[in-house]
Amino acid sequence: MHQRCCIIGGGGYFGQHVAREMQRDGYHTVLLDLAFVDVDRDGFILDERKTTRIRGSLLDEALLEKALKKSSVCIHIAAYGMSGAPAMDPGKIFEINVHGTMQAMTACARFNVRKFVLASSVGVVFTNEELHNSTEDHPKPDNYYSHYSESKNDAEEFVLKANGAVVQSCALRFRGIFGPGEPRSTNRAAEAIAQGLYFAKFEKSRDALTQFSGVDNSAKAMMLAARALFTKPEVVGGQAYTIVDGGEPVKSWDFWNPLIETLGQKPPKVRIPYFLVIWGVYLNEIFYFFTKLMAPPLNQLEVNLIAVTNTYSIEKARRDLGYDPQNNHDLTEVCKYYSRYFLTHPVQVFDMPKIFTHLALFLLSILIAVVLYYTF
User: Fold this and answer.
1) Is 53 helix (H, G, I), strand (E, B) or coil?
2) CATH topology of domain 3-180+211-248+312-321
3) Is-catalytic flag, 148?
């Protein structure tokens, strides 16, 4: 009989990749989520004999109990508010990301689920200042401008402090998970490139460097963390680990160049001053918060992750988890996927209504930013 692994948020793109890794490691996976997506990727399949799906929210205590019972480990991926309109809903962000995490881990203790792995974010240490080869003990910021980052920090601190005799826990910090068909960052980038909207760039750090988290490396790291909580809980319990691709960091704007070339576009040449972008986004966020009209295409956290150098050390994960990332920052499969995808899902190149709408709002935000800059 297989051990059971409950994956909260297991119905999404990343969650199902984690499920596949856990199944390869011998687990029956119980996936709890509000919705279950079809992972459109060549060769991707879950073993249905080792898969149980439960549709619903982690805030539903009865469903949470159903998912956790008889499980030996819980992997908590579910989160809310990284991008788009949800990023401007602090109430729901903290309800799901903080209260939901606390409820899940408390339930683990009640139902004798002894191991707990949390999906966290590099946003718990990164704001708008450069990070170079940052380690997990880097000081946390005094203040967060991102509700999402603050909520992930609160959840991570709760999980790591709760590590003990009843439940052993750890957290993995990711940065921009990417992969073929990945809906949050990869699809958005591919659609912007295909529409010809990827024509301008902005930087606070000259030639800003970063590292992304490949989906296969990230899913494997989740499995390794769960395994390590069984084999060496005294080492891994209560610890945070940064999980990004290995090798040399990449330039934020150059990372997508292979996909840009594949889709017949050109790399961005126009440079927009960083302060205009960040002020424009800030004012756009305020405008949306009060009017609920036109959520900004990027929020402040997303702008800074692109515009400011942020690189991370993975040596702790290598040492404690045996993390050994492969095919680092490799877009070969991503390029093949989207070259086929846009043959059957054509987009309107230079979607003029969308461009003019966002441009008008952005120019208005810039105008207000300039007035404020020279007034104060």
Assistant:
1) strand
2) Rossmann fold (3.40.50)
3) yes
